[in-house]
Prior knowledge:
homodimer; mainly alpha; 7 helices; 62% helix; 10% strand; extended; DNA-binding
Amino acid sequence: MDTIGHRGASAAFLREDLGPCTCHRRIRSTLDVIANKWAVPVFVELVRAKGEPLRFTQLARAIPGITQKELTKQLREMEAAGLVLRKVYPVVPPKVEYTLTQLGWSLDPVLDALARWAATYGNVVADNQARFMERRKADGAAP
Amino acid sequence: MDTIGHRGASAAFLREDLGPCTCHRRIRSTLDVIANKWAVPVFVELVRAKGEPLRFTQLARAIPGITQKELTKQLREMEAAGLVLRKVYPVVPPKVEYTLTQLGWSLDPVLDALARWAATYGNVVADNQARFMERRKADGAAP
DNA sequence: CGGCATCCATTTTGATACTG
DNA sequence: CAGTATCAAAATGGATGCCG
Lengths: 143, 143
């Protein structure tokens, strides 16, 4: 034990293996998968479907504000990573269905960890940010 | 049980509370804190310091490729959120020290979850992406 | 229906120079 | 030393229109 008291979890993700460099890359590669603007909304819809396939337009209508372009882009990215399965039916008019793969489902606990952190600390963070802005205004207004 | 077999974790982050909308916001608000390009590198350095304060230039030299501008921006953002403490010594030449706060340390298990997911599935994802690119080239080359 | 192509606005990032 | 200011480059996001 050292005398510097933060007392909590201490860098589990750093101790587990070879050092900060590998660690950066790993965290970053996970973020690259889930940090895009529409990644989470698309993900959540597919999760909510519980394995039922969803058609392109179903997803589009379920996610307010998304454009076809962005939805296409996001689905392609997830398909490329192997998180979703894209099934094309050779019919007219076209029919394409999307489902989460096993690999896709494996992200569920990760997203859960993010949601839980915000549930616990989100308000504190928002408060801090608000106060920080206040202080900046006060400091800027009276020099 | 339903007959559609994904068999794994099933939407823990959706069951815990009010629905997908709250869930989106929470996950997004956490991502807003950690998803910026330099957030993780800065974070990891502060974690590695184990509570020891780090000076601006120490951080800058420890993080290859970062510019002063980006480091300043990142540290300000983290300070605003209450994740780091910024201590200014009124001396010349200037001396400023940064440390993680308790709130900052609370992100450690979250980052750990991200690192662990990549440790488990990162190679599979990379493989999938490589194969996807191959397929795209093959399909484009022989129409 | 699903999706690609194009154009444009906004944001993010980087390089460089300057300062108390 | 620890920033700020300015400018340029690049990535991202949104709005349309067309097509099989």
